[in-house]
Amino acid sequence: MIRIEFLGVRGSVPTPGRQTLAYGGNTSGVLISFGNSPHHLFLDAGTGIVEAGNRLVSRSEAIEGRILITHAHSDHIQGIPFFKPLYQPQHQFSIHMPEQAGQNCEQVLKMLMAPAFFPVSTDAFNAKISYETQQPGTTAYPEGYSVTSLKANHPGNTFMYKIRIGDTDIVYCPDNEFIPDDKAMRSSMFDFFEGCDLVIHDSHESRLSYEKKRGWGHSAWEDIAELAYEAGVNQLYLTHHAPESTDADLDQRQQALSMMTRRPPVALFAREGQTVELNS
Question: How confident is the model at residue 35 (pLDDT cuts 50, 70, 90)?
């Protein structure tokens, strides 16, 4: 059994407050768990990863895991310095990120925790940690899954990930600007999405707001819903909600999404704390 938990679904900046309680204010993060396995797969490390780390260290067993970061914009890495398992020696993690402006994964995280930005450096980490500069293509891991990395359309070097566990395919793509009339992009994304059990994708914009934000690196949710439908996706979860999108705004979008005829069988705006279970 595969368990997917949404740790954070907000984009750009954390947005705590009364108007974001239902969907959540923590920034990007997803946790994939594998039954009773001690191995945990984290997708991104925004502020949503912090509470998950607190839960994990409250248990007595050692934790091992992999953290796949899509890119180094702050809403995808700002939870790293506050992720408690990294500071405890019994745990083991591999942290992955594509090259960022000529800097490898380890260099980027050292900059994140440089003295100008944080009171302790990565030298304070006591867990067994390896840093991997993620490359495009497919890599099989000994824990029983493979990861395919594909470059996303977003400022900087940003990846989207497809995780294959047995016969189950999960796509994670929180920052990506899908341009519907770009035939090459449509073909590439269709192939990446085709037949997937679950897709988690950027929905920062609507078709109306997107017209004023072309080139900013985010998608209109309506376009993603239709592409996922065409590609035969079974479950679609829209994420990376804009800071200004209130619960009421997202409820309205959910109602509009539910009325679309061209949408996957399950199509939802993701909520922090929401869980999905899939058979592998």
Answer: confident
**Cross-strand pairs, 64:** 39, 92
Partners of 150 in the beta sheet?
160
β-pair partners for 278: 2
Q: What are phi and psi of 163, to 5 degrees?
A: -105, 125
Separation of alpha carbons 144 and 272, rounded Å: 27
Total domains, the chain: 1
- pTM of the predicted protein model: 0.97
Pairing relationship of beta strands 145-151 and 159-165 according to DSSP bridges: antiparallel
- Tell me the CATH number at 257: 3.60.15.10
Residues 6+ apart with CB under 8 A from 107: none
Range of the domain at 205: 2-278
- CA atoms of 41 and 111, how far apart (whole Å): 24
Question: Strands 137-141 and 145-151, how do they pair?
Answer: antiparallel
